[in-house]
Amino acid sequence: MLPRAAYVDPAVFEWERRHFFGAGWMCVGRSDQIPEPGGQRAEAVGEGSVLLVRDEHGVLRAFANTCRHRGHELLPCGAAAQQKVIICPYHSWTYGLDGGLRAAAGFKNQPGFAARQWGLTELPLAEWHGLVFVGGSATAPPLADTLGTLEEIVAPYELERLVVAGQHDYETSANWKILTENYHECYHCPAIHPELCRVTPPRSGENYSAGGTWVGGWMQLRDGMATMSLDGASHAVPLRGLDAEGLRSVIYVNIFPNVLVSLHPDYVMVHRLVPLAADRTRIECTWAFAPESLARPGFDPGYAVDFWDLVNRQDWRACESVQRGLSSPHAVPGPLSPEEDAVYQFVAMVARGYQGEPVWNPGLPTWTSATPAPAG
Length: 376
Ligand code: FES
Ligand SMILES: [Fe+2]
Prior knowledge:
Elements: H1 5-8, H2 10-19, E1 25-30, E2 39-45, E3 48-54, E4 60-64, E5 80-82, E6 86-87, E7 94-95, E8 101-103, E9 122-123, E10 125-128, E11 131-135, H3 143-147, H4 150-154, E12 163-172, H5 176-183, H6 189-192, H7 194-199, E13 206-207, E14 214-220, E15 249-255, E16 259-263, E17 268-277, E18 280-289, H8 291-294, H9 302-326, H10 341-354
Helix pairs in contact: 5-9, 5-10
The protein binds FE2/S2 (inorganic) cluster and fe (ii) ion.
């Protein structure tokens, strides 16, 4: 485990917000949340927020959500708007959808004032299979370069084609890393997830060993189970791009720092973590299905949504207890079991980041193969 301070110290959290959530790529939502030109939405990134805008050519762009006049937010965080221009609510400076300043009352003939100097600050934006990522700094390497072979794993699911049919927003009293670590192991499944264990045996999977800013693994469905639901039955159609192995597996992937993508034979669940404080995290959880599933008469996504809502809440309860346990000054880091090798990959990424190195997962630690773990 990481040192206790990593989970409870507000100073560590502020550092993470600046460096993990404000400097590299971070998922800010889905492309389909801003479908039309003129659509606007503000989302937290790092220490501030970004304004996501779909311009008149249909291209999604990200700007720092801070007016060039005196810094008012252009939209409150979490709010959305639909209009042909971007208007600051404070003194009505007006920007085009390209971020250029169009109007500033009283400045028209002011000597020395050149509107072109006062456009919004644009940030790198990348769309990846329907998910929107913003780069906190202009020097971030291209998103695709940081994901490496994850592309081959995710592409057959055609996430960009799927339609969200269920959403739950949770607010948990747990550090974002406790939630992520919990996501990366099923060592806890026999103790707290009886329903999940009925459809996937906790030890049925393996973790990937590939380089990139992600960690992930897969689990196998039990014979006779079509997907993750209370009775193992699916009420949707299988995703069309999957091979026989894809139809028998559930893949769990975490793209650093804040998005968990769970790929099922017939739907994709995405958890987007928004860190609020060292001990508080908001989680937006969505379930997306093929359009042909939604077109079925009487289609009800509840078989997937209700199953995972139950499991999610079991997880949040455990994570909140870990947070309380770690708030004890007597808490000291414990050892990870061999079944927690993906947790190890994740905490090693975090630790590299703390040391000022790139957050990059080189894959499984070598001792998890045939060789026994080093003593101590
Ligand atoms: S701060 Fe935006 S118009 Fe004044
Ligand atoms: Fe769990």
